[in-house]
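User: I'll paste a sequence; please echo it back and then give the predicted structure.

Assistant: Echoing your sequence first, then the prediction.
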Amino acid sequence: MKNLHSPGRIQKKILAITVSCLLGMCMIISFVSYYLFQNYLQHSLIQSTETNLRLLSDAMDRNIDDIYRMVRFCQTNSDIALYIKNSPNPGTTLAVATHDRMTEEYNNNPSSEYMIRLAVITREHFLQIVSAPYSSTADLAREMPELSFYEELLNSRGYNFSTGFIKDPFYRRGKDILPIIRPITYKFNSVQGGFLFIEISSDLFTDALQRYAAAEDSPVVLTIGEHHYLYVSDGLTETTAAYEVVKDFSDSATIDGMRISRVKDSGGVSHFAVTASLNMPDCYITQIISRTELQNQQRILRFLLAGTLLSILGIGALLMLVLNRMISVPVTKIRDKMQRVSEGDFTRDASIEWNHELGDIGKGINDLSESVYLLMNKRLEDEKQKKDLEYKMLQSQINPHFLYNTLNSIKWMATIQGAEGISEMTTALAKLLKSLSKGTSLLVPVREELSLLQDYFTIQRYRYGGTITLNIHTEEDAILDVPVIKFTLQPLVENAIFHGIEPKGSGHIEIHLYYEEGTDEDASPNVRIDVTDDGVGMSKEKAEQILLSNSDNSADFFREIGVSNVQKRLQYEFGEQYGITVKSAEGEFTTMSILIPGRNAEETIHV
């Protein structure tokens, strides 16, 4: 018969497994590394674009802020307000002085070169500062109100650049300009007396973009309102090709105010885009991330990962061959030993205890198998002894002191009361002794357990001179056929008498039996038995302790069958989910509640 565990077969198997694992591990490492490094490259490229775009937008914003400052000057300067109020003819002293003040402020503005026309216009006259190449003889006071965008820009609450770039309306051969029209009010009220007109040159944007380095496939798009301008060859060209936003990644932006998104161009190609807002309403500058640059970096990464993968595989294969020759025989024997252990053979095998590290493993396996064997035997023996001891203890001997008390009670009744109660009390005692002699580990119907409880309570009722009462209420007759461990209720009633009612002097015990739905919808309902006394109650700590220990040393019948022993017996028989719970309020009541499975009435009782 062919030996399936021969060294050659195992060596080949080890070789195949090792190579497969090594290859798989290298592939996983490579893919994970490629994915992480690709994300890192992509993130770095986006982050650098964010930084560059922020610098670009800041440069444009500085010029825009300068223009805004010029607008505020024209709207708030007292000389201009006086000019608006009086609207003097050109050449008058007031007109010349106002023009000189405007020119001074204009020349001091760092971005004056981008304001190719600045005009303060009243209803009849105007003052303008205009670059020489764009000078014209147009009557701005008359022609401005006729422009199509005049009313919209003038009545806008703030700056409005919805027109986008337009041709200079007063010099057709001029550059594209962005118009600004803002009202100028009288000095001491908010009534509009005139307005300010500024033409912003497109050079404000193109000058900054000329200094901005971007790859050929990384276009920069300037958005002004609903107009999109592509920067190409030192100029801005309006384009209708819009990029569709597929997903927004702005949460991952490292600079406030930046927006990162994945977009698709008109050809359906996916790109990453970084957008920076300008200090102009509805104006943005967007750069599409270069796919070529990202692909070049990915190509270099793939070469590095491929070389690393081949190197790891070569070194791993060599190392695997060397180690395989050194450990094939020991591994075979250790494997056989472990197989025997898994099949239940825990005997010691001295042949796997070599004088090296694998021998230490073999010795450890032998020690472990022996320990497991001994532990299993000891555990089984301990469990058997524990149950035997507990059941023997539960059967326990009758407490002589209780018999003495009972006989004294019988003697007392025979002496002073006549023979009427002697028969009842003696009969109850005989039934209890007869039931006790049969043991306490048997399952009996609830009706039989209640009968035993009645016999026990008869003795206690006479003992306490009728100061205690008992009432049993069963909601359904089927509960009486449910099996329960014998002498389950007696310790709870005894505890209620001695610890609840006796310190008080008198009291009542109520026993309530009813069905309770289980947690599993398919399971039959459980039976709950509540034993409630109106005695002195107990603290929360005592209620928790009573299920853990039988520390009461008072000498009475059945005292060895304490509440905690009942708890253990119930859980041994029915499971950990069943047993006793205690609820009590000091000075008011104590309720001990027993939960047992509600088996069918036809189910056989263990005898």
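The longest strand covers residues 176-185. Residues 7-76 form the longest helix (70 residues).
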